[in-house]
Amino acid sequence: MSTTRILLAADLHLGGPVAAPDAALTAQAAQSRAQSLERLVELSRRQGVDLVLLPGDVFHAPDPPLGAVLALQKALDAWEQMGARVFIAPGNHDPWLPGGVWESWPAGPGLTIFGPQAQGVELAEEGLWVAGMAHASERESRDLSQLLPPPPPGRTGLAVLHANIASAPKPGDHEPYAPASLQNLLTGPFALWALGHIHIPQELSPHPWVLYAGTLQGAHMGESGPKGAWLLELAGGSLSAEFVSLAPLMFHDVVRDDLMGLESPAALVARVREKMEAPASPWPQEHCLRLKLAGPSPLWRMLGREEPQDVAASLKREMGLGGLVLDMNSLCPPADPEALAARPDVLGRTLALIAQAQEDPELLAALERELAGSLHPDQRRLLPEERRAWLAGLLEEGRALALRGLWQGGPENGDAA
Ligand SMILES: [Mn+2]
After folding, report:
1. 29 Cα to the center of ligand 1, angstroms
2. Threshold 0.85, pTM exceeds
3. Which domain holds residue 388?
4. How far is the CA of 197 from the centre of ligand 1 (A)?
């Protein structure tokens, strides 16, 4: 029984920016997208991959820069030499436009770039049918999944598409280009849906397989978690899938507000590490962490003694990180703010006012309306409810600031902590 090895990667965004969370990583960040593509090629070589599926946003823009074009051509040449067939289904960032980069791309013997007309390619030897199509604009509104030609009888169908499934978990808002419904994919004639667009790798179904490749390299701290590609094996009609972490820079986003029991900095580091998901990668990765430490902590004095950047430098070094963005604005002493709010002193009055604003939606709404016009453009752009949430966060930070600056208590001067 012959086995077909398939590599699925999407949203390479070649030519697009990657934010370096540390000045020392600037050069590496600039190279990380091209480098992740090199790793993809090397993985294909090591695994003897037969098919490479690239469902869109291969380029970050319809007119990609020279470096991005050269990087892709080099990869395609390498795949051609290996005898791998490559299928590209352009997405919303790199749509197929007349006279654009895809129309003029040099043909290769194993290369299929799907165009604005749905198309199926028969691979008779493997018994496969690979179907796909391109976004024809930067705002594709059609459900392309329903336009793909079904596999002929006796062929296993693989669909390659850049599409938005509304029900799939995604970070924040995602533009609903080429909307598709999972239910339609599940009842359709394809054995595999190789999807691009959402940057979180995910398996939406194992039968048929519905997979988002995720992006190959996160663009910034907001694109946290493992980024890489799926390796699939197709043998006798059954498919298996394994995710391989490839991104040269891996971003992590960790919030810890459960710090009360931690009495030593080493225990704090261990608690943070617990939340840093880091699957093994065949290649070295720099790990960059956005860390928010919040709430009451017996370590508040130690962490507040130095400048925050010095605390961040020590944690970064201890944890072997490439970059660390540390937010301790909501860290506070292990005091009871409710009890303190009853006191008639400055701290008590301040805490009482903050608590009032936190508990009374009317007061918060009034504050939001009063401030809306005079805020920074970043906050003026927000919807009223988003601005209220932002203000609520500020109140939380203000409470921590008041506790840190005005609290006189603690066992060392006879006040109960
Ligand atoms: Mn996209």
Report:
1. 21
2. yes
3. 339-417
4. 4
